[in-house]
Amino acid sequence: MTYATVKTLSHKEIIEALKRNEAEEMEYLRRIDLYQRENKLEFFDKPPNKGPNPKQAQIFDAFPNPAFKTFVLHGGNRLGKTFSLSAIVESVMFGKYLWNNQSLMHLFPHKNPRKVRYVGQDWHDHVQTVVIPELEKWWPGARKVEKHGNGIIKDTFWKDMQSGSTLQIMSNKQDPGDHEGWSGDLLVYDEPPRREIYIANARGLTDRRGKEVFGITMLKEAWIDREIIKKVDKDGKPDSSVFCVQGTSYDNVGYGITVEGVEDFRSKLTEEEVQTRIYGVPSYLQGLVYQMFNRKDHLCPHFTIPLNWMVDIAIDVHPRERQAVMFMAVDERGEKYVCDEIWDYGDGTQTGEAIVRKVHRNDYRVNRIIIDPLAKGDRNNPETTYQKIANVLARYDLPLETATKDLDAGILSVKRHLKGPNNRPSLFLLDNCPRTLYEIEGYMWDKKNPGKVSDVDDHQMENLYRICLLNTRYIEPEEEGVLYAENFDAGRNRVTGY
After folding, report:
1. DSSP string, 299-315
2. Predicted confidence (pLDDT) at residue 482 exceeds the cutoff of 80
3. CA atoms within a 13 Å half-sphere pointing along the CA-CB vector of 495
4. Fold of 54-286
5. Do domains 54-286 and 299-486 have the same CATH topology?
6. How many other CB atoms are found less than 10 A from the CB of residue 74?
7. For residue 497, is pLDDT > 70?
8. pLDDT at position 381
9. Do 260 and 273 form a contact (C-beta atoms < 8 A)?
10. What is the 3-state secondary structure (H, E, C) of 370-431?
């Protein structure tokens, strides 16, 4: 309605025209509201919605990266794992994220319709009541989909009529043979699958170089922690194709749940259940000695140790097992870096020679070298492991001394370095030390002997606590000779041996 038109209308006609415009506007707003309600995935990150919680956002941001093949979102209940899986499943089928229009087609060079498989738990208690309703909730209303069932429950096979992409929903309770023979672009697991189910499905990603996504609370299936979350490559380093995010129930507060709701749920749980269901710490890992260790905060890419950093070396030897040697550098700020290791068979002479080669090859500024006191064995035997190593090191002016056996104090020292004041670590592990990584992530308290640690896979852990108990303080190279003359408790000098 223009100004010129308004001038020619009576007051009654103007009122009627305004009502017509208002009705048209109301109808327009009604249609927008209906579209938004029927296309939740397109608008879930736009006001008044808040979008993904911080942990979900990390997964969504990383998924388009072709370098990542395995994704894990694990943690407490109500973290928002099932929504995350639904959003990724449907986005792959559509070929893009609907909420920001980011294309995912570069992940599928074959350009064919995508094939997705979703593995839930029990058919009725989980797939029918949780998985399928969540998928339906986020499926765009304007997008035609064809569905049929499997004879057990309905809607276990979906076909997007626009892209031709398909979704097959399976159960972790099925026979593994039922999962064989499939190939596709994406596998998602809602809660931990049995290992035989995982293996039957995993081979299906080979042809299309597909991706897999786990959305899990680790109540069971301990194999996932070692083989998926802590997966390593052929060199024993963390597998760079795995992207893992751990969260708690509190990470989803404000994104559909409240603090009061979490606290109410928490009040019904035992302390062990709180750790698993609220904080996402698997029950079988609650016996870890170094629970505070995590790859994000403590694991660093390998780098060349500066020539001025001081390096302590610890040796743990066994007559019928591999010999374990740890090299730990200390920088000017007093921060410690497990920078090298030896994990190999050999007698005392061979172990000593391996240490010398490491020292010379890397120009380590050696501070102290310590060894398990048990290596001395029988004092009347001149051919003990201790003596063989000491003889080799002595030829290169590298003195050897026995280490302390104060395990309890050593563990406390390591813990203080892993999580110090303000939760900041001062102990780090370089990724060229796969044996140390393996041990620190699996170092457990002994279930049969409370207060004692397990003696399984503990060789580098013995070295770790003994080096930390040295409490080595950084000394400038040009000062060390003077300081040793004045302070005999500062540690041994590489050149003088005193």
Report:
1. EE---PPPTTSEEEEEE
2. no
3. 5
4. Rossmann fold (3.40.50)
5. no
6. 24
7. no
8. 66
9. no
10. EECHHHHCCCCCCCCHHHHHHHHHHCCCCCCEECCCCHHHHHHHHHHHHCCHHHCCCEEEEC
C-alpha span between 223 and 244 (Å, rounded): 15
Strand, coil or helix: what is 200?
A: helix
Q: Among residues 213, 207, 4, which one has the least CA distance to residue 92? A: 213
CB 407 within 8 A of CB 468: no
Tens of pLDDT along 281-295? 877 777 899 999 999
- The pTM assigned to this predicted structure is 0.80
Question: For the chain, which residues make up each domain, given as ranges?
Answer: 3-38, 54-286, 299-486
Per DSSP bridges, beta strands 401-402 and 365-371 are: parallel
**134 phi/psi in degrees, rounded to 5:** -70, -40
Distance CA 388, CA 375 (A): 10
Cβ neighbour number for residue 433 with a 10 Å cutoff: 25
Sign, CA dihedral 216-218-219-224, equals positive
CA angle 207, 205, 212 (to 5 degrees): 150
**Amino acid 483: pLDDT:** 43
Tell me, what amino acid is at 332? E
Bridge partners of 160? Answer: 145
For residues 250-257, give the mean pLDDT. 93
Q: How far apart are CA 307 and CA 309, in angstroms?
A: 6
Cα–Cα distance, 316 to 455 (Å, whole number): 13
CA dist., res. 250 & res. 271, Å (int): 16
- Say if strands 242-247 and 365-371 run parallel, antiparallel, or are unpaired: unpaired
* Segment among 15-24, 168-177, 242-251, 254-263 with least mean pLDDT: 15-24
- State the CATH class of domain 299-486: alpha beta
Measure Cα distances from 494 to 308, 385, 388, 400, 469 in Å: 13, 22, 19, 11, 19
Closest CA to 404 of 371, 428, 359: 371
393-403, pLDDT tens digit by residue?
999 999 999 99
Q: In the structure, what pLDDT confidence band is assigned to residue 377 with cuts at 50, 70 and 90? A: confident
Query: DSSP characters for 262-276?
Result: HHHHHTTS-HHHIII
Least Cα distance to 280 among 53, 55, 54, 76 occurs for 76
Closest by CA to 80, choosing from 228, 278, 215, is 215
3-state secondary structure of 19: helix
Q: What pLDDT sits at residue 410?
A: 97
Instruction: List residues bridging with 158 in a β-sheet.
Output: 147, 167
State phi, psi for 91 to the nearest 5 degrees. Answer: -65, -40
- Give 494's pLDDT tier (boundaries 50, 70, 90): very low
Nearest 10 degrees: Cα torsion 294, 295, 301, 304: 20
State the Cα–Cα distance between residues 417 and 337, nearest whole angstrom.
Answer: 11
